[in-house]
Amino acid sequence: MASCPVLLRGLLPAVTLAHRLAGAPRCAAAATHICSPVADRRRRMTAAAGLAGAGAGAATAAPATTQQQQQQGQAPVVANPALAHSEVLLATTFPSKDRWVQYLRAAGLRVRAYPEDTEGPGADLSRVEFAICWKPAPGLLKQCPNLKGIQSMGAGVDHMIDEPSLPRHVPLLRVIDPLMSERMATWVLWGVINCQRKCDAYMAAQRQRRWDKGVEDFRNVDNAELRVGIMGLGVMGGATADALLKLGYPVSAWTRTPRQHCPGVRCYSGLGQLQEFASSVDVLVCLLPLTDATRGILDAKLFSWLPKGASVINAARGGHLVEADLLGALDSGHLAPAILDVFATEPLPADSPLWEHPRVRIFPHVSSMTNIESAVEQMLQNRECVLTGKAPPPELLVDWATGY
Description:
Elements: H1 17-21, H2 38-47, H3 66-71, E1 87-92, H4 97-106, E2 110-113, E3 128-134, E4 149-152, H5 158-161, E5 172-173, H6 178-196, H7 199-207, E6 228-231, H8 235-246, E7 251-255, E8 265-269, H9 274-278, E9 283-286, H10 300-305, E10 310-314, H11 323-331, E11 335-340, E12 360-362, H12 372-387
Parallel strand pairs: 1-2, 1-3, 3-4, 4-5, 6-7, 6-9, 7-8, 9-10, 10-11, 11-12
Helix pairs in contact: 6-8
């Protein structure tokens, strides 16, 4: 089977924060494909008004039309006209669903949006050959007998991998935008510095109008002294490790299975090395894929292995964290502040004790949001691959068995 090209018009080259700090990435996991020029990517983002999806508050400006793109000297993003007969199903819980429909239709796709275009008399889904989804309704894709590809609307696929009604013989694809890795690395770096410099304690002192130079015990913790441990060394984890290394932080990583050596990173793998890994970090960062094997991995046992005063940052999935165990570790004084971007139930219920806990910082799943414009370009490429019998780029294909 021929391989489908990965060069996507308008995507930023694989320039992570670490690249900008100093040269090429040390960590092989941080490297991705080189795409089109940076300037072109920025022009396209400007034309699209900087829209961002992934279920969080997107910008209010409308995307650029094909005519506007042409007037601005840009090549419009369009689907292959030879595949115009094929329909695309969009099934998502994103509040920005209407914007996705607008973008996809502007690209020349025949889009059926769930539920408005898929229910009632005459709702025949036999022409749907490509589905773009985020938490699709159970059984929905079984109504598409000619389905050839399933596209996640983000980098994660845990929202679909456990759904028994999904056809396992159909390729499952994810989105990898180099800028998403950079966004994640930047957000985690902020979190590490927040823990390192006790920024929340300074904020509390400010609210009390208290001039307190003793928050850090009259001594700054330097980068080389703060050990950061990353759980998960995929695209996001690799970029994050690289950014931290460039700033002089000692970085270790834990993965479920052994990974290729990552220069500068002390690597651990398997449950047999999890305790040794946890006991050697001051800030624990979870960027693991959510699978049956990793669900609930951030629990009381793991927290007990962390040094007293360690901090936890979770930007992976809420299913990794046992919230009651975290609250217990925080209340006992064993753990320092926790920074959480993901939760078992989203939106986080108003009655959750996490909201008002003094040692918890909450974000509404925004650490690295999917950009609609660049994602649509990648989805068009993936669709063309599967509909023409070509193999999509391997890094975008999800293994149904492993869940990532």
